[in-house]
Amino acid sequence: MSARKQMQQPHACGLSRRDFIKASAVAGGAAVFLGSLPHVQRAWAENGVDVAYGQALPENQIYTVCLQCNTGCPIKVKLQDGVAVKIDGNPYSPWNMQPHIAYDTPIAEAATIEGALCPKGQAGLQTVYDPYRIVSVLKRKPGTPRGGGEWVTIPFDRAIEEIVEGGNLFNEGPVPGLRESYALADADAARDMAAFVKKIQDEPDAEAKQALIEEFQETFAEYLDLLIDPEHPDLGPRNNQVVFAWGRLKDARGDFIKRWIGPSFGSANAHGHTTVCQGSLYFTGKAMSEQFIDGKWAGGQKFYWQGDLRNSEFVVFVGASPFEGNYGPPMRVPGITTNQVERGMKMVVVDPRLSKTAAKAWRWLPIQPGTEAALALGLIRWVIDNERFDARYLSAANKAAATAIGEPTWTPATWLVKLDEHGQPGRYLRASEIGLRAKQERPLSTDPAKTYEFDYFVALVNGQPVAVDPYDTENPVRGDLLVDGVRLGDVTVKSALQIIADSAREHTLEEWADICGLRPRDLEEVAFEFTSHGKKAVADIHRGVSQHTNGFYNVLAWYTLNALIGRFNVGGNAAAGRTVHAPHLHIVPSSTPPPPVSPPAASTTAPKITRKSPGQWNVKPANSVSRPVTSPALALSEKLAGALGVRQDKGNDGDWEEF
Ligand code: SF4
After folding, report:
1. What's the pLDDT tens digit per position in 188-202?
2. How far is the CA of 280 from the centre of ligand 1 (A)?
3. Which atom from ligand 1 is nearest to the alpha carbon of 117?
4. Considering the entire predicted model, what is its pTM?
């Protein structure tokens, strides 16, 4: 039987197409009437009236999780005669209902209360009943080569047996199964061997290393046959030959897999995917949240900042369309729409496509794809040229200075960066290099019995160099912000903010706008509004910005723009985004607003939009010249990264090195 013929509706469905359409019509009709009147349903339930709408009964609802995208919204699936016919949001979850119902709400009552769900989540039924859904295990046809594209279907039980037991599965010799690969099952021995291998790896001398390998072989002689290669103990036991490579499994599922494949099965090889899609968001967040610990930049968190949409007054969505996708509509959209209606929150949507979010925006900027960093740099240029940045916040060079002005964070905007002979920015200047302050021996945070050499950073204060300890709580340093090419001893320096300004000034505003296919006026108006709300403005970015090979730098440019008007983790600005854990905001009063500046004159021209076909639009921005999309972002943004003193990821989770 061909693989195609095996693809049937799941047995659990048990519906013919005709039955399903009938059931859908009944359910749809009831839902249209009753789904819009949940209070009527509840009244009926409380009054003991016979409820004809069976989907409102708790026994006809199953609580589970939507996997239509990787947001993983909590849902309840409604059954009719045991068949899933409707999906709604779980009202117990803050992801679907804000505020969510109390956790001690009786399940019978919750059955009549619907949380929000996005259209893609609603379409989960279509995924379940998709006639082309793969519902059997596909195995390469024995005797055919890999990549030959020939498959057979096998029952699930047999698949489990073959995976566990192995055997001559493809008529090409024995294949080890999980049982055989589960070679080393002694956890104590595994731990001891791992510690010894670390010693071998840390030994720099080749001869000494070989001697350690021989010692390892003697010490663990009874386990050598369980290793992949006893001459290379670093490869570990044969357990490591099992690799679990998965796609986009977020918290809980990923945790479960890691726990199973690692501590339980004993393989070090559990790999989720992450590269250019969301990875750029996470790694930029990691780079920008690195702390100077024990003389090294470390401890950054893999996360990203999202706009605080319920409290912002002005949001620029870039490559993010929360009304259609993003992370994810059930949680984000109510915040946006409530804020728009109740507080008049303004939105700008930067998207080549007239998305549903753009349709509700104050401004839609139909940008040329791939030029998002150019837009960020154009906005940064305007903000710096017009001194609309938050100078009070940015001038705080250390913790004491930030605390003194009521800020929870601070940046290296005023720290001095050395220029090379070509005028290119490199490493931060250290106080010992100009004889300002000697290095200090300080105890390691991880092992106070040991020490490391601490070398102060440097900022100018009223033109005079001052040593900066980032975490000094006693001596506030408020540095000069724009320091351009000052000579200190043998070195020429600029402040980090000056380097950002230089990068942004490599093009005029008109040129940045032209690269993006936008009008200069668009950039001016958006930048003016962006800097007119204190800290309650934010650029909220997502994959349209990050999902590029230069996504790291694109994200960095937009996060830098957010940093210019305040700091992160402040109400109305940007908060650490999490899928499972609720965002944690440090709400503090806004600091001094930026200086007044006259608003740009109102636009007299607008983009020309013509309808091409249903749902498709031709957009010709006014006053713009079409040109091939180039990507100046990478070269420019590398300088941004250097200016911020962030780290370059040298591998997946590997070494980070200062530029
Ligand atoms: S955002 Fe929509 S598609 Fe994604 S998990 Fe939530 S309901 Fe499902």
Report:
1. 999 999 999 999 999
2. 22
3. 7
4. 0.75
**Other Cβ atoms closer than 10 A to 248:** 15
- pLDDT above 50 (res 399): yes
524-562 tens-digit pLDDT:
999 999 999 998 999 999 989 998 889 999 999 999 999
Ligand 1 centroid – CA 616 distance (Å): 25
Q: Which two tokens stand for residue 309?
A: 């949409």
| Ordered structural domains, the chain, with CATH | 33-118 (no CATH), 137-181 (no CATH), 305-390+504-582+632-639 (3.40.228.10), 408-501 (no CATH)
pLDDT digits (tens, 9 = 90+) for 60-85: 999 999 999 888 899 999 998 888 99
Report the relative pairing of strands 574-577 and 537-541 from DSSP bridges.
unpaired
Closest atom of ligand 1 to CA, residue 327: 1
- Give nearest CA residue, ligand 1 atom 1: 328
Residue 30, token pair as written in the block: 């009831």
d(CA 277, CA 547): 4
Of the CA atoms within 13 Å of residue 151, those in its CB half-sphere come to: 14
Calculate helix-pair angle for 372-385, 551-564, nearest 10 degrees. Answer: 20
Cα distance between residue 654 and residue 186, in whole Å:
29
Quote the Cα angle for 583-315-394, to 5°: 75
CA–CA separation, 125 vs 109, rounded Å?
Answer: 24
CA of residue 117 to ligand 1 center, whole Å: 7
Check if the beta carbon of residue 31 is closer than 8 Å to that of residue 112: no
**Whether residue 66 has its Cβ less than 6 Å from ligand 1:** yes
Q: How confident is the model at residue 521 (pLDDT cuts 50, 70, 90)?
A: very high
Assess whether the C-beta atom of 123 lies below 6 angstroms from ligand 1. Answer: no
The token duo for 577 is 């985004």
CA of 553 from ligand 1 middle (Å) equals 28
Ligand 1: which of 69, 76, 126 to mutate, judged by most atoms within 8 Å of the beta carbon? 69
DSSP letters, 135-192, are -SEEEEPTTS-TTS--EEEE-HHHHHHHHHH-BSTTSSS-B--HHHH-----HHHHHH
Q: Which of 71, 75, 127, 323 to mutate to test the pocket of ligand 1 (most atoms within 8 A of CB)?
A: 71
Is the dihedral angle over the CA atoms 293, 298, 299, 300 positive or is it negative? Answer: positive
CB of 330 within 8 A of CB of 96?
Answer: yes
